[in-house]
Amino acid sequence: MQFDYGHMEEGHLGKPYNMRLLKRLIPYSRPYRKPIVLALALTILITLFYLAIPYLPKIAIDRYILSLWYPVNQQENQNLATEFSDRYGHLVVATEETGLGFISNAHIKQIDPGDLRRYYDRGIISKEGFYRVSAEAVNKNGVLNPEVLIRGEGSSVYISGEALKGFSPDQIATLRHRDLKGLLLVGLFLLLLIGGSLVLNYWEFYLLEKSGQHMMQDIRMELFGRIQGQAIQFFDRNPVGRLVTRVTNDIENLNEMFKSVLITIFKDVFLLSGIIVVLVHLNWHLALISFMLLPVVFALTLFFSTRAREVFREIRQHIAAINAFLQERLSGIRIIQLFVQERSQLKRFEELNHKNYLASLRQIRIFAVFMPFMEVLSSVGIGLLIWYGGGKVIGEQLSLGSLVAFIGYIQMFFKPIRDISEKYNIMQSAMASMERIFGLMDQKEIIQEPIIPKRPVRSEGHVEFKNVSFSYNDGFPVLKGVSFEIKPGQIVALVGYTGSGKTTTISLLERFYELEKGDILFDGLDIREWGIGELRSRIGLVMQDVFIFAGTIAENIYLGDEKISREKLEDVSRQANAYQFINGLPGGFSHEVKEEGVTLSAGERQLLALSRALAYDPTLLVLDEATSSVDPETERLIQDSIFTLSKRQTTLIVAHRPSTIQMADRILVMHHGHIVEQGTHEELIALKNIYYRLNLLHKPEA
Question: The pTM is what?
Answer without folding.
Answer: 0.69
